Amino acid sequence: MNPQLFYPVKPYSVNQPFAANWNPVYKQQGLLGHNGIDMLAITGQPIYASHDGVCQPEIDSHGGNGVVLIGYNGTMKTIYWHMLQDNAVVHSGQIVKAGDLLGYADNTGISTNPHLHFGLCFFP
């Protein structure tokens, strides 16, 4: 497997990196720190698929709205969070290609400003 990823927002700018963080909100969620990369985005800014995959739109228990994208034969998933609610662009099970529109940035869930929370996980 040689995954290729593309930027989900343009222009691309990180306003919070992945790693340990002093903010107690992560500990309250059972995390050691920030489990993704926060990318600068304004409300309504388009968010694009960073790879080919199958969509799973979700809303978390804190009201965060997003899309989980499973790709590379189920060996990888990317997470796009804090998106506009009730503005469906993709549906569950939809197949998308890298660069396809997934939705729009917002400030849903546990968030202090509009941005895209982007996560990446690999599975054996």
Strand fraction equals: 35-45%
How many beta-strand segments?
11
Overall pLDDT level: 86
Main sheet: strand order: 1-4-11-8-7-6-9
Spatial extent as radius of gyration: 14 Å
The biggest sheet amounts to: 7 strands, antiparallel
H/E series, N to C? EEHEEEEEEEEE
What helical percentage do the residues reach? under 10%
Concise description?
It contains 1 helix and 11 strands. The chain is mainly beta and 124 residues long. The strands form 3 sheets. It has a 7-stranded antiparallel β-sheet, with no helix packed on it. A two-stranded antiparallel ribbon has the order 2-3. Strands 5-10 form a two-stranded antiparallel ribbon.
